[in-house]
Amino acid sequence: MRVQGLTKRFGKVHALQGVDLEVRPGTVLGLLGPNGAGKTTIVRILSTLERPDSGTASVGGHDVVREPHLVRRAIAVVGQYATVDQGVSGRENLYVVARLLGLRPRAARARAEELLELFGLGAMAGRAAGGYSGGQRRRLDLAASLIGRPGILYLDEPSTGLDPHSRKELWDLIRGLTDDGMTLLLTTQHMEEAEALAGDVVVVDRGRVVAAGTPKELRSRIGGQMLHVRTAATADLETARSALRAAGLAPAGDGEDGVLRMPLTRDDHLTAALRALAGADIVVTGFETRTPSLDEAFLALTSVPRDREDQ
Ligand SMILES: Nc1ncnc2c1ncn2[C@@H]1O[C@H](COP(=O)(O)OP(=O)(O)OP(=O)(O)O)[C@@H](O)[C@H]1O
Asked: Which of UniProt's keywords are assigned here (predicted)?
């Protein structure tokens, strides 16, 4: 899969502003970014559901604009919301998809059984899919997408809404797919998911690639420690943020949970932060350094200051 200089506008919204990325055959690329970053737009273009305004994209060697039918033949897409028919059994769901893809009844039945087994759905195969748990439904959806043996699979936020146990089960299944040589493009908002599944990660924010590398490289890029600042009054967090920015520092995230976070990428950052906060007219109730979590690393990568937006 190769994407070069992809742009896409929806009215005034610049959803993609020149995206480049590449997924090598047999690997998993994690496409990471916050809400509205442009992930779904990239996947929709690569699925031939949307045309780019400019730039090129090819999938399995086929251009998405000039050879959409060949692209569609090579891929399968698993969305955020299960597409299974809730009224019929898991077995029936897979059988119907297999028949729609042109398999004869006997081959369709065999393929359905094979996938039910592979995805640990054998025991509930005869029950209506509407009664399945979230994790079971997601597994059925994944199984349905694999019936035609696609070489390339797009997974859109595969574990959203699943509990930790079901999420791990799903991750194991997804890992198994690449052992069989499949190429995967995975979109997610969670660094943890990208690290669990993807060899390479591309971070997009506001329609641009802001970082690319292995999950480990991205985590190390923000340096060793993270500063956490709390203030007595919530409104003071904004004052603290402005004071840090004015001192040339780069606080990250929206402070939604009452904590302002900032990566400490240089030795003098901590002293500079102390000075900036001491000079602001606020009551600081917490000031501590921590090893960053993966999500904090991600936040730091996607926190482009507002004044640099859309330049
Ligand atoms: N059909 C559309 N019409 C208008 N605006 C759109 C359309 N599709 C996407 N957008 C806008 O383009 C931007 C990128 O959206 P996109 O859905 O690609 O983001 P995303 O990274 O997938 O977000 P999420 O994680 O929330 O799914 C957003 O500002 C969105 O509102």
From this structure: Antibiotic resistance, ATP-binding, Cell membrane, Membrane, Nucleotide-binding, Translocase, Transport
